[in-house]
Amino acid sequence: MARQTISCEWSSKPRHYLQECQKIHCASEEVLDHPLKPLVVTVTESRVVRRAFGGSTTSSTGSSTPTPTLDPLGVTLDGSDPLSQFACQEMDPLSKMAADSWDGIPNSKRGIDTTEDIVEPWSARKSGILSKFTTSEKLSIVTSFLSGGEKVVVKAQSSVVDKVKNRLEQLDDFEEGSVRQMLDLSQQEYMGRIEQLNQELVQAWHHDQRVKALKIAIQCSKLLVDTSVIQFYPSKFVLITDILDIFGKLVYERLRTKAEYYVPGSKTPTALPENFTPDMVPESAKETCRNWFYKIASIRELVPRLYVEMAILKSYSFLTSTEFSQALLRLTRMTRGIGDPLVAVYARCYLCRVGMTVATADREYIKENFYDFLATYHQLFTPTIRSELTKLKVDLSTYLTLYTPALDWILHGVATNAPEKLLVEILARCKEKCNSALLLNSIMAAFKPVYIASRALQFIELLSACDEEGFPQYLLFRTLGLCLTLADPPADVRLQVLNDVWRIVTKLEDPGHYISCAEVWIQFAVKHFSSREVNTFLGDIIRHMTPDRAFEQYYTQLQAVISKILMHTSDFESLFTMDKFLPLLDMFQKESIKVSVCKSVMDSFTANYQESTNDPVIINALMFICRILHDSVNALTVEDEKRQIGNLISAFVRNVEYGRDFEQQLSFYVEARSAFTNLDAVHAHLVHSVNRLAVETRCIVKGHHTRKTAAFVRACAAYCYITIPSITSVFTRLELYLLSGQVALLNQCLGQADACFKAALSIIPELPPTMDVDGKQKSTEPYLVSYVSQFLSTLLVVPDNPEQGVLYLTRALINVLQQYPWDLSCNAQAVIYMNVLDMLTAASQEYYLYHVEKVDSNDTLYGSDPKFITEINKMCSILLEEILIHLKNLGINEQYQAQATLAVSLFSRVVIRGNLKDGALLNLAVNLWNLAQKHNCVDPKQVTKIAEYLKKKSLQQDGNVYSELLAKIQFRKE
Amino acid sequence: MAINLDIKVKRANKVYREGEKITGLILIQSPSDIKHDGISLTMEGTVNLQLSAKNVGIFEAFYNSVKPIQLVGMTSEVAPAGKIPSGKTEIPFEFPLTPRANKILYETYHGVFVNIQYLLRCEMKRSFLAKDLVKVAEFIVEYKPSGSEKATPHPVKFSITPESLQNVKDKSRIPRFSVTGHLDSTVCCITKPFTGELVVESCEVPIKSVELQLVRVETCGCAEGYAKDATEIQNIQIGEGNVPCGIAIPIYMVFPRLFTCPTLSTSNFKVEFEVNIVIIFQDDHLITENFRIVLSRY
To answer: Does this entry carry the keyword Isomerase (chain B) (predicted)?
Structure first.
């Protein structure tokens, strides 16, 4: 092994870059077509044009060369590609599937489908209701299906004692002895119990205990009669109707799948298809279905009977396709028997909900439901209800808000696709009622905002009249505001609308009520009025929020105000000229909220404000906001947060542009640096910005710096040099030093460039051994290799400092590399050394491959002085020795694969860069080759490539050495 | 006991009319061969009358129960003594549904004191040691469309006020109220719901519930005279809680199957129906308004 590690004197091969370049330059010719074009332009313009697949490459459009024979692909596709074919269908496949899953009469299906799309699904409202209507009071459940709780004796309620208790009556009576009443349940426990009932039902169903399942459904709906904890009622409704929905679905699906349907022509029974018609249903299935309805019709109590029938309403489609409208109307009328208006309105709500899922286009019943509610509306304000409410300790306005979810849903059903005249009709009927606030609120929420907006003044008049007790007036104005954000009232009344509304809203004393209106109306103001009005608006908000530090309670609303202003303002100038905007920001005194508000301001600034600014007002204001953001960063801030803030501030820095006033720009950067000291990202961005500034300066003077510009670019370089050290990341620092050095070099600031490079070299040892890449720890050596390579390519053109020795930066680099704690099992160090070798050979040429304009590189400085060349060769020899030592070590450690790879690359280096006429080098090459071949670890492809290269070279002039080399090494025949 | 004996009639709803043929299958399922001494199938229809203890003495009720009236009876030997192979065996059968002489096939009715029932009884006689296997299946008889009366609407209006009440002891304790309404018909088709409307015009005290009570009135004739009993079939709530005043609340009730039949009046027994509208006040006082109704099949 030792014989290979001979030290060897290096001498570089002289290169003539210009000549080489000319030799390899290809002849170019002018073309008219883009070579890739025909592949792209085969899209057909219309369905008639047949696709020319793989059409001739010369034609510019595929359609111009119709293929005479029918293309098989074209035939199947009918001249259009599958995507556009799908697009041509009136329905996309998904909605088609959805439409098909709605059973029903095929001919009316289309109509339903369209309305389905428009009606907002109930599920969207569910969570809202559940979170809004909560209680801290204790609830109770009476049921026979849950364990725990105390036993109670429920008396049979039938007034005539019967000695035969028949099946019919047993259905809705509790099983004797098993009834348990659970008292004192918290809301959470109560919901848990209901969920338990739900599971119990599904389980019973799957264990073929269908009567038990029905009983559970009945007991659940019985819970809806109980209004004892009235604030929770809407949520209870949501929970229980969920169970009923499941029950209905179970019944329906079972009937469908159990029905033995014979597909025409087939003898084996299958389940009914999803879109069956009643005449396809076999008699036995109809009988089972009828049995369900008979059973339910005999449920004693009204409310459970109604709810359970509604739940399985969809199953009517097994019996008849026409009964839905009748059944819906009948159920609507039967609901009138429910005395408690709250229970009744929710029963109606469920009816409308179920009605929308069954196959009927008839919506008359929804209107009927609403008018029935109107007819009993006065009930809500009767003394009986009031005394009930005082007993429950609930005030009237809270009570009325309990109606909104149900009423909204019913009216929503009425209003969907309704013509404008229906609104007029309904409005007229509602006006007749006193205390119509609740109704007006739901009307505004349900009807198309356009209709509401065009009557804005009329509504304001109506709403202003609703100042008696009952439904809170502020909610009305809030709802109106919401409508007007969706649709604009006529332009000529807008100001009057705002004035009229605000005359009332500003009088609201409760800051909570006030802000919930303001939060909505600010959007109206921002959308339609100038910053002057908005400013007044903001002033009003501040005035209302300041007393008793009310703002502390309403941060979310205030945040919404800000975000709405931001959403509709693209003009930041006017935003910051409003003297009330920053005071509004000041109201956020809780650190975390303040930061998130500032973030949203910056977000919208970066998103909306594309062009740069130099407006001092904006800059000052944004600087203020960014400082808040920056100051929120501390040692505990998570990385992601830092990154976000860093990005926002960087975006701000990027947007500030003083045009040709470079001095001003630089001083802004100086200010920014002092303001945002904690964020790496911002510093890095600032360094980039300043570098850009320097390069721009150079562009303007076209490389000829005047004294003034020279001083300026030096100032830029100095800025970079002193900013970089405050960055924590070693990687960023390394890159920025290199970049700044390059920029300095470009601007002929040699001293500054030197300083930057030196600084970069000094921190290479600080590089951590591993870094985090996508959450995995990876060695930094590949990074270092690429960084050093880049560094070297820069060093080639850096002129030597006359006060220092020859190539002192390169030497310094080699020294640093030598000290670096390399992982010896890896070739990284040797690879870098080979790269240095490359660079040094390039440095020994008479003319360098590239130069920096107006900077004299070493080729000019030394003029290929023999002393200089010797110096370089000396360095090369040392490097070569280092590499050879490494090779030897690899051999000792038996890492033959790595050894072979390295040997081959060094071999290529020697052959390409080295002067082979030097016998020692030739010898070295031969030895390296043999070493590489020794353990048979070289990729045979690479071997053949090298062989080809050598053969080619040997045929050229001066090819003797190569032939000599070829003769000396043998290619193993595989 | 792994042998499974079952009777399946062809119609899913098991409803047959006079003159029709009852067809079906006897299903025998067994893991092993069965030896038997013959399988027979009997069709029978009977009216069972019972006297209530309320009308006659408790002993009479016990001893004097009226002899059942057989409406139809027919037996056929399905299979002679032999063996039935293991597995599933299906034996088809067919009976013409015709009444015995001088008898009428009444509709199936399940009551308290009167029961009209039609059964198919399959019996597998087995040897001395093994128990006989019996399976009973009920089928339902309805009147034919022809020859039976059709319900002609007979609307009734009603108005309930304190003044209209009977058997009140203390008039002064009755609150002021007025309930009006109408029934669409007191002659009803049994397959159609019982409908009408009810309006609480005014009421001094809150109402707890408004209910419809369906009552059967069964009369049995015996040596000592008639025994008439009214019992509840079902009770359907149509108004829950304090129902709103001035709004028409629908009266809607589906007649339960089996427990109702067309009104029946024969020399030996009668089955009649009544509907009570019951208004229960918050203080549990209740007012009842009674309506006799006539049910018919068509």
So the answer is: no
